[in-house]
Write a structure and sequence with these properties.
The structure holds two protein chains of two kinds.
Chain A lengths: L6 H9 L1 E5 L6 E6 L11 E5 L9 H10 L4 E5 L21 H15 L4 E6 L1 H8 L8 E7 L14 H8 L2 H9 L1 H19 L12 H12 L3 E7 L5 H10 L6 H6 E6 L9 H16 L16
Parallel strand pairs in A: 3-4, 3-5, 5-6, 6-7, 7-8
Antiparallel strand pairs in A: 1-2, 2-4
Helix pairs in contact in A: 1-2, 2-11, 6-7
Chain B lengths: L18 E7 L2 E8 L10 E5 L4 H19 L4 E4 L16 H19 L4 E6 L1 H12 L3 E7 L5 H18 L8 H11 L1 E4 L2 E4 H7 L4 H4 L7 E6 L7 H12 L4 E6 L17 H13 L2
Parallel strand pairs in B: 3-4, 3-5, 5-6, 6-9, 9-10
Antiparallel strand pairs in B: 1-2, 2-4, 7-8
Helix pairs in contact in B: 1-9, 2-3, 4-5
The chains are: A alpha/beta, B alpha/beta.
């Protein structure tokens, strides 16, 4: 959206394929971008996790066509209940990322397109979904770009608030889900508990104990895997507050070899909700340069992709 | 078994198939998703869904997909697509104009005609997509109906509301833009674009759309029409009331549904994508009753 399409990007667009991926929740709709044939193949597919799949400002589309020019395949898809995908739409819960969707995609791309090595790129909820994939598919993932996701045990700020609660209480769809879906009822109880816990400030909010146990499980799975990871936040992001605890208390405890696999970048300003196009373009450029660093082939020379 | 025993047959809703694809239009690939009819409906037209523009496309992409699947479940071939510079399609967002958005809608209609072997088209348009659908409906000889979901009545008002909303959200985040709506729109004209909410508003689209008037576009339209107002008000807005009166005055059969909420068209809901059961059900009922 906020970039000027180059002839190379248009060529990648022409090569794209729209796919259906069968999953436990119905068919997921996604777009596969093959790597540009004129560059050395990386042998990896970048899974871009955004909602909707093309991302609010089409960053996922731009990233897909840029990394394809670096020799990486890319795939973006709608989680179930979002965008064009089938499935019931449920309230987002950070501690219940749609791991089943991601696992279905990884396995389908393997069987249908021969993609067996992946780089996962995720933003906020997408990042939490991405890191969850390490539990079931640790050997398939070469890298993780984890952008500005909250990792604390409380629900994300702004969503589970009184105003939204009042709106949901008058929505017939929400009541139907609560009546007919045990899962929806469990999620509602968890959300309510989280709201109460947050308001009572239980468990402390400045210690490792305040981090989400689900995130901790996924983080341990990442540690056990051999993947590299980039953790990118803005200093002014609300989401950074919980990550600061991990930065202070978790990462220093890692052994040297593991710690070396992980990069942490905290930029001035915002990453989670960029306030201007320039910051968004910086995020795209950094994402591409980091993915490029995972390429097993010879380094490219010349201007970096993503710079206008 | 008693001879007069009632036999209960459970009917499950027909399974809708979705076929995502790319199709060529004006030298670039556009994304589309075709849903063939899931049941028999004699003489059904095909439905083409025209999306909102810019950030509004991301906010409303799911409810449009739901509408297309619902139409297919009712027996209509149905198709959604992404215009150039939107979603998964190719093309520069900076180069979009109202005219080329209409061209893409007409190309989408041609695509669904090829896929379904059906000529007639029911146009569904959301927000600016309502203007696009209206223009496409008037230009096409084979238009069978028009569904307008919270259509933009006047281009100038749309842009003022768009910029005002985005400036207000910046202030709510603590960002001091120091700009007024007029200043932003003057900047767009002067410099070719303005960055608001990390999204450009480009002069080409602004200048080509601000003078549009939905009522004027539909001066030649007298086909079956559903107008869905999605606003936080109890009555029809003056613009919508006048549009309904004008259409009915020309002999058009007009149905109206009102959904009393303000979704925040440019703001993506984090918790779940925006949708409306009432909007979908009333649209489905209207389609079901259409001959």
């Amino acid at each position: 959206m906020n970039w000027r399409e180059t002839p190379s990007e248009l060529a990648r667009a022409w090569a794209e394929k729209a796919l259906k991926v069968p999953s436990p929740h119905g068919d997921l709709i996604g777009i596969y971008t093959p790597p540009a044939p004129e560059v050395a193949p990386a042998g990896m597919c970048v899974l871009l996790l955004a909602r909707p799949r093309f991302e609010y400002r089409r960053m996922a589309v731009h990233l897909a066509r840029l990394v394809a020019q670096e020799g990486f395949a890319a795939f973006r898809f709608d989680f179930h209940g979002w965008g064009d995908s089938e499935g019931e739409t449920q309230l987002t819960m950070l501690d219940e990322p749609a791991t089943e969707d991601l696992t279905a995609v990884i396995r389908h791309l393997g069987s249908a397109l021969g993609e067996h090595r992946f780089v996962l790129w995720g933003w906020c909820y997408g990042a939490r979904a991405a890191i969850s994939a390490f539990v079931d598919e640790p050997d398939a993932i070469a890298g993780l770009a984890f952008l500005s996701a909250p990792i604390d045990a409380a629900p994300a700020s702004g969503v589970y608030n009184v105003r939204n609660l009042a709106r949901w209480l008058t929505d017939g769809t929400q009541w139907r889900q609560l009546i007919f879906s045990g899962r929806a009822r469990r999620r509602a109880v968890d959300a309510l508990r989280g709201m109460i816990r947050k308001s009572m400030n239980r468990g402390g909010n400045s210690s490792e104990a305040s981090l989400s146990p689900v995130f901790m499980e996924h983080f341990r799975a990442l540690i056990r895997a051999r993947a590299r990871a980039l953790f990118l936040y803005g200093a002014e992001d609300d989401e950074y507050a919980s990550f600061r605890i991990a930065e202070r208390d978790l990462f220093p405890k890692l052994d040297v070899a593991t710690r070396r696999r992980f990069e942490i970048e905290v930029w001035p300003g915002r990453v989670h909700s960029p306030l201007d196009v320039a910051r968004q373009q910086e995020i795209v450029a950094r994402s591409v340069s980091w993915v490029r660093s995972l390429h097993p082939g010879p380094l490219r020379h010349g201007a970096a992709v993503g710079e206008n | 078994m008693p001879s007069n025993a009632a036999v209960r047959v459970e009917m499950s809703p027909p399974k809708v198939q979705s076929e995502p694809l790319f199709f060529p239009a004006d030298g670039r690939p556009l994304y589309g998703m075709y849903c063939p009819p899931a049941r028999e409906r004699p003489h059904a037209a095909a439905l083409v869904a025209c999306h909102g523009v810019g950030l509004e496309h991301a906010v409303t992409s799911h409810v449009v997909a739901q509408a297309v699947r619902q139409a297919a479940a009712l027996g209509y071939p149905a198709f959604l697509y992404h215009s150039r510079g939107h979603g998964d399609s190719a093309g520069d967002f900076a180069e979009i104009t109202f005219e080329n958005l209409v061209e893409d809608a007409l190309a989408a209609a041609e695509q669904v005609r090829q896929l379904s072997r059906v000529r007639r088209i029911i146009w569904l348009g959301l927000r600016v997509g309502g203007l696009v659908a209206a223009e496409a409906a008037v230009r096409s000889a084979d238009s069978a109906g028009l569904v307008l979901w919270e259509p933009v009545a006047k281009g100038a008002d749309y842009f003022r509301q768009l910029v005002r909303g985005l400036l207000f959200s910046a202030v709510a985040r603590g960002e001091k833009t120091g700009k007024t709506v007029n200043e932003v729109l003057e900047q767009v004209e002067r410099e070719g674009q303005a960055d608001i909410h990390a999204c450009y508003l480009h002069a080409k689209f602004y200048l080509g759309t601000r003078d549009l008037d939905l009522a004027k576009i539909l001066e030649r339209w007298a086909g079956p029409t559903l107008l869905a107002q999605v606003q936080a008000r109890l009555n029809l807005s003056p613009a919508n009331a006048a549009l309904v009166a004008a259409l009915e005055g020309r002999g058009a059969k007009v149905a109206v549904t009102r959904i009393s909420e303000d979704p925040g068209w440019q703001f993506l809901m984090w918790g779940q994508p925006w949708s409306s059961t009432t909007l979908l059900e009333n649209t489905g009922s209207w389609l079901d009753e259409l001959a």
